Amino acid sequence: MSARLIDGNALARSIRDDVARRVAALAARPACAGGPVVPGLAVVLVGEDAASAVYVRNKVKDCGEVGIASTLDRLPADTSEATLLARIAELNADTKVHGILVQLPLPQHIDAHRVIEAISPAKDADGFHVGNVGQLVVGRPLFRPCTPYGVMRMLEHAGTRLDGAEAVVIGRSNIVGKPQALMLLAAGATVTICHSRTKDLAAHTRRADVLVAAVGRPNLVTADMVKPGATVIDVGMNRGADGKLCGDVDFAGVREVAGAITPVPGGVGPMTRAMLLVNTLEAAERSAG
Ligand code: GUN
User: Fold this and answer.
1) What pTM was estimated for this model as a whole?
2) Ligand 1 atom showing the smallest separation from residue 175 Cα
3) What is the pLDDT of residues 130-154, one digit of tens each?
């Protein structure tokens, strides 16, 4: 039997509609409640990476569609770390800016960790600052990283039971794998993190009621690795040999075994974009009291 499809495009649309309503409410705030506030996101791109340029353009476009004000700083590839840090300090001090996002990867001569740590934790729309990672670890999240946050919303929408479930995350990145594991843990799942050094990947994945693949390897997850009825979330975004976008999961094979599955494209990608809007809006709501 074919798995139920978890439609990221449709869910992202409903989240954007909700964000737009809340943005409008902030903009209509009466003077007695502090006056109108327009949520603001500052996006910074350093260098000419083509994929990053597309991502930031989409982020800015999404903001415009829901009424969030956004700025895009496009800095040349040879921008010094000191110049970038000075720009971040300006954005930290700018009261019109509620969220700051520095697109990764950064050029090699810039220490990405130092840059992330320079962003005010109260404006860290990516949730990458160690302060925000710590908040997530202790179960009091402020900003949650957008991709795993979007995955949690998809699981909730799909009605996937997490309390007591076996969850397996493939990938241990700071952006997806590690925060995903923490969020699943907080939801009551028993979590295993697998990665490139894991000895018998299939032995782990076959136990999973919830399987999240976030490694960037086309067709890594095949049907024989999936427990019948499992929910399979594909975070991968790869170009296949045919030039087409594909995930980490062999979609055609796995959909015959899984209970629910996300497609690529149209799955996690649009949700990541939607959750950045949520994070920016919520930062503005917090600053507005
Ligand atoms: N590069 C790839 N994904 C992301 C993301 O979620 N945030 C930032 N800042 N850079 C990225």
Assistant:
1) 0.97
2) 6
3) 999 999 999 999 999 999 999 999 9
